[in-house]
Each structure stands twice: as structure tokens, then as C-alpha cells.
Amino acid sequence: MITLSNGEQVEFLTGSGALGFDGRGWWWEYPLRWLGILNPHEFTIVVKTLTLRPRKGNLRWYAPWRCVRLIPGGTVNAVGLTNPGVDWWIRACYPRMRRMGLQTVVSVYPESVEEAHAFADKLRPLHIAAIELNASCPNVEHCETDAVNHVYAIACALRGAGHPLIVKVGYDQPYVAIAQSLEGVAEAIHAINAVPWRLVFGDKPSPLARLGGGGVSGEPIRPFVREAVQRLRDATRLPIIAGGGIYTLHDLQELWELGARAFSIGTLFLRAPWKPNRLVRAWRTQQARQPQRQTVTNSAGKQSNG
Length: 306
Ligand SMILES: Cc1cc2nc3c(=O)[nH]c(=O)nc-3n(C[C@H](O)[C@H](O)[C@H](O)COP(=O)(O)O)c2cc1C
Prior knowledge:
About 30% of the residues lie in helices and about 20% in strands. The protein is of the alpha/beta class. It has a single domain, classed as TIM Barrel (Alpha-Beta Barrel), CATH 3.20.20.70.
């Protein structure tokens, strides 16, 4: 569990994109929600990443498989940040999420410091738990020559919104240096985003080769997540949210022992949408039986074992 400076507590987050733009999930998940098998209220909902202006990307609602494919144990996607823009989200999704009482984190992708200021102005009046800076989409070109300074400057601008900031990093970035630069700016670091296909599978052809290969999620990226959490734990005091291939209690246990204090679940919603809520409940039951293991992490990044 991580307690943010505004008192909001986060423990299980949906990976951005897992339950769509408003926490109700994608259309094929609705029946499970109606039956109570998929309950968004047990998660902190991280909204699918928004850009300042609408972005076409590669996702078409009538043919999602064009840019999202199941692969053994996981998925590969090349959605490319398809979204109708932050103004649409504030108008169409935010009021519904408020009505539903969902704990909401807004994931954003500003392309420049100016855009980050514009995001901050738009998000400042909203009642949200936090902003997540998606600093790491594997499906858009990162042309910044100096990723650390670029992310730092954008993070500082987003802080102007007055909400706690989470920064989501990628394995293909200098994520340790980014995290170190963000101490005192961000309140948690989220590791990791989908991993570019070539880093996971080398020269093996991707089913999404025509879209640049895509980003891999799920079981194939587990070793990358474990490495990232361990390196972050050794190098920074920022609380860590771990995500990538979390399917089982064993995954949660391993990541906890490596130093993660909150978890995000993405691909499991796609592959077996009836499982994430069961997993959360099983973890909470296990934790309740072991009260000495409950660790509280505060926004300054200090951890105390109670
Ligand atoms: C179809 C799809 C769409 C995604 N969209 C986003 C996104 O908009 N923003 C983001 O930060 N991450 C996005 N992700 C990455 C996930 O949030 C998550 O970080 C990643 O898949 C690793 O976790 P997992 O193995 O549990 O899925 C997406 C992943 C998938 C499979």
C-alpha cells in the first residue's frame, strides 16, 4: 500500500488501458461487470493514456486485433495512444467515474513542457487521486536526446496541477536515472510499461511487424519487471508500483520481496478478466493473516514495517 500526500491509498491499480477510459472496461467485459465478476471498485483505475488533442493511433473499436494480439503467455500491442483527447475525457468520462465513486488516476502523455502546463490547468479543478505521467509508451517515437531532463521538466510542469504524481517508466529508458531525478517531484515510480518486441524476442518476427513490432506485456516481460524493481529499490527511495505479467499470488509475493509496495494489473484483464478481482482478494486475505508483513509507505518514500 502506498499513501499519497493527499491521503489517497493505492495498492492495486489497473494498468493504463486495461479498463478503458472510464473504469467500465472494454465492451466485451461489460457482462462480467454486470455479473459482479469484474469489479472496478476494488482497483485504483488508471485511465487509458490521454493526449492533449485527439490522437488516431492504430486502434479501431471494430477491429482491435489489428493492433493487439495474444501471444503465448501475454500480448503484444501497437495501439499507439489512440484516444479522443483530454477535453473529451473530462466531459464524457470524468463525471461518470465520479458518480461511480471510482478512485481515479489520469494517465497523460504530454509531448512538451507547454503541453504539460496545459494538462495541469485542465486537471487542477478535478477530484482525482493522482496523475500518472506515461513517460514510456513503446509505440511512439521518443526523439528526446536527453530523456532524464525531458521527463523531469514535464513532471515538474504537471506538479502544477496540485495532484500527486506517479511516473511510469519503461525498460528501454534510463529508468533508474529518471527515478533518481524525480525524488521530491513524483510520489511513486511505476515500473514498467510494455517492453519493445525486439528487447524480448530479438529478431523473431512480431505479428505486428508492420506497426513497428509493438510492445510486449504479460508473462514474457516478468524478468524485465523483476530486474527493474530490484534496481529501483537499490537506487531510489521512491515507492515502487510494480506491473508486468502479474497473474498469481506468487508474482505478487516476489515483487513485494523485491521492494514493490503496490501493483498494477493489465494483461490479466485481457486474457482472463474474471481473475484480477480474485487475485486481489486472495492477496488481501493472505496479508490479513500476516499482519506483521503489512508495510506502509508514505509519500516521502519512507517505508515502515508495522
Ligand atoms: C492493449 C494495451 C493497451 C495499453 N495502453 C496503455 C496506455 O494507454 N498507457 C500506458 O501507460 N500503458 C498502456 N499499456 C501498458 C499496460 O498498462 C501495462 O503497463 C503493461 O501491459 C504491462 O503490464 P501487464 O503485463 O500486466 O499488462 C497497454 C497495454 C496493452 C496490452
